[in-house]
Amino acid sequence: MAQQEAAVEKRHTIGTSGPRTLDDHVRVTKADIAARLRYIRRHHPEGPFSLAELADLAGVSKRNLASAESAEGANLTIKTLVKVVHSLGIMRSAYFLDEQVFQQVNNELDVIQELRRGKAHALALRTSHAVPVPRAAEQISQLLTGIIDAAATARVSLHGAPEAGDEEQHISGPEPPTSSR
Questions:
Q1: For 53-80, what is each residue's pLDDT tens digit?
Q2: Helices marked H in 18-133 — which ranges?
């Protein structure tokens, strides 16, 4: 039996630079989840959230989240992880498990934060259902920057435009001469 367990652990090795046993891999994954949980609580555009606030928002126990953030990390269920990410408006459940998803979502949240700082209050962070993101955060940022630049250019070019009373005459042109019969 011990030989079978050793064989299973060997099959789950990550490589020479990563965890060597299944237990090591679990320990590293728990530490990653704990760090990501702390990060999103502190850096979410609607936060920062205390453990109690996030627990209430997600419908999970504060004790469970506190254990997950501890040095040892707790064995969170998939259901708990999904509740937490969805309660934060994140529709990609792999947020806590996949480094690439973690980075992508955080980049998108950074764009939202920048838009909020720029007084773009009408931007809706949350949706009632998962919506695929049509563009990368950088592309959206470039698009919005282009729109803002175009608006600034239009404002400058309209600065010398006639006043509202004069505008009507300019648009309709001069009055045609009337014939005197």
A1: 999 999 999 998 998 888 677 788 889 9
A2: 22-43, 51-58, 62-69, 78-87, 99-117
